[in-house]
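Hey L., structure's done. Input below.
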Amino acid sequence: MTFDQILDRDRLRECLETGTGKGVRVGILDSGVASGLPELNGRVVSNYEVVERRHGKPSISKLEEGKDVIEHGTACAYIIHQHAPDAEMHSIRVIGASHSSTSQKLLAALEFAVEQKWDILNLSLGTESSYEQLARLADQAYYQGMIWIAAKDNKRNKVGYPAGLASVVGVDMDFFEQPSQFRFHAGKVIEVEACGVYVDAPTSNGGWQQFTGTSFACPQVTGIAARLREHFPDLTPFQLKAALASLRENQDSPD
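Output:
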């Protein structure tokens, strides 16, 4: 792969049209995934949860079956699967029934994910604390070629981390007619805007729900990245940003 190929818009469009995410491993750090849902077609191949300890750092526990008590992670997995049906997904439950987590749990999950050397991480979550530890892990992931895609804070004037890190693809939301559409704004802290308004996804009990938020724009970009990574197995975070800039809907914009 040459850098010129990454900038070739027609070639990139062809990759998106033919890509299914085959051979790409995607980690999902979230509230867990109801991995048995038929809509996911068995593509969630491993499930873990972060267990807090009274003394010492949290540990990672493997689960026989994935569960999701708040439907958040399941929706993200489904969105990724819609874009990249052959991608292999791995879930780490970081968020609990209270819709919250701790920085220590997030750091433990990120450390584990980096050790697994998955290709892409979907991070529809964030924090304002532990900046130095997050930046260190993000740099480690960057240099080993792992792509982090993270949701911006839903509050308009807050960014959050890891979305605000330069080595991470940060994602904000907007309404788009098609889930494959997105905008890219070079030079902004959060460079990508993707479809995160009224997104349909299945729930654990067999129903369906509409979701709105940056959390659900993030996996749209993750799914697109998985299709590109299939064709460019050595695709780096920097090259992904260049590809997204080339493919952006806002071609007539100066950025």
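The chain has a mean pLDDT of 92. Residues 214-231 form the longest helix (18 residues).

-- N.
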